[in-house]
Amino acid sequence: MGKDKIILAGMQFYGKHGVFPEEKSMGQKFIIDVELSLDLRRAGATDDITHLPNYADVYSTVKGIVTQKTFNLIEALAEAIAQQVLSTYRIDQVTVRVRKPHAPISGIFDYMGCEIVRGLKA
């Protein structure tokens, strides 16, 4: 199988994740990228949406986890997203990137983040 992917990039949600009490009470923006690895040949050949995960459903799944749950670590947030996506959609592998642009760290940076890969070939 090739390296076909569906990419949902730059999804922005407000969540209450972090180790400090202020992060859990005030919350902040998180930027999530999700890549779904699966064979896209059938969808490409038939031009039939039923051969794909519904993008809007995947977005809603991610949004629900980021906005309705609370984690100390962005790594735990990424893991929860990966496990839910893997168990809900017919895919081979998922890559999840979590970016935290307002991490409580003194310094100049674009974001702090993590990337995990889970699935059959992970």
Q: How many helical elements?
A: 4
Strand tally: 4
| H/E element order | EHEHHHEE
Instruction: Write down the overall geometry.
Output: elongated
The fourth-level CATH homologous superfamily is GTP cyclohydrolase I, C-terminal domain/NADPH-dependent 7-cyano-7-deazaguanine reductase, N-terminal domain
Give helix % range: 25-40%
CATH topology: GTP Cyclohydrolase I, domain 2
- How many strands, what sense, and barrel or not for the largest sheet? 4 strands, antiparallel
Alpha carbon gap, first and last residue: 14 Å
CATH architecture designation = 2-Layer Sandwich
Biggest sheet strand line-up: 1-2-3-4
Class in CATH? Alpha Beta
Global structural class: alpha+beta
Q: How many domains make up the coordinates?
A: 1
Structure write-up:
- By secondary structure, the protein is α+β, with helices and mostly antiparallel strands.
- The protein has one domain: 2-Layer Sandwich (GTP Cyclohydrolase I, domain 2), CATH 3.30.1130.
- The chain has four helices and four strands.
- It has a four-stranded antiparallel sheet.
- Helix 3 (55-68) runs antiparallel to helix 4.
- The longest helix has 15 residues, at 74-88.
- The model has no long low-confidence stretch (mean pLDDT 95).
